[in-house]
Specification:
The protein is mostly beta strands. Helix content is 0%, strand content 45%. It is built from no helices and eight strands. The strands form two sheets. It has a five-stranded mixed beta sheet, with no helix packed on it. It has a three-stranded mixed beta sheet with strand order 1-3-6, with no helix packed on it.
Amino acid sequence: MPAPGRSIGQPMALAPVTLRPASRGQEPKVSLARDTAVVTLAIDASSAVAGTELSYALRTAAGAAVVSGTVRAPQPGAPLLLLVPSSQIPAPGHYVLIVADSEYPFEVVAQ
């Protein structure tokens, strides 16, 4: 697996963690090992019109900004996948991914 920030020279399997809105049960756990290059987060973006621009922000539970940007909404039936370089995740703990007006809490645990 390439180091964070390096290009991918061969196929790489992703194991996305599906996030659910804040009001829907227990927070998913994202395992982060030392050799993890990226964390793949998946959300259901079916309410968004395909191709429209969505804003996202990843924050710590305390509200500190981690990363943010914009992405195009996926085609109907496809999840929105967000690949976050592991180097951007400062430490294990609780985080919130905000996409449009929805919040998706999760916990990062060291492996």
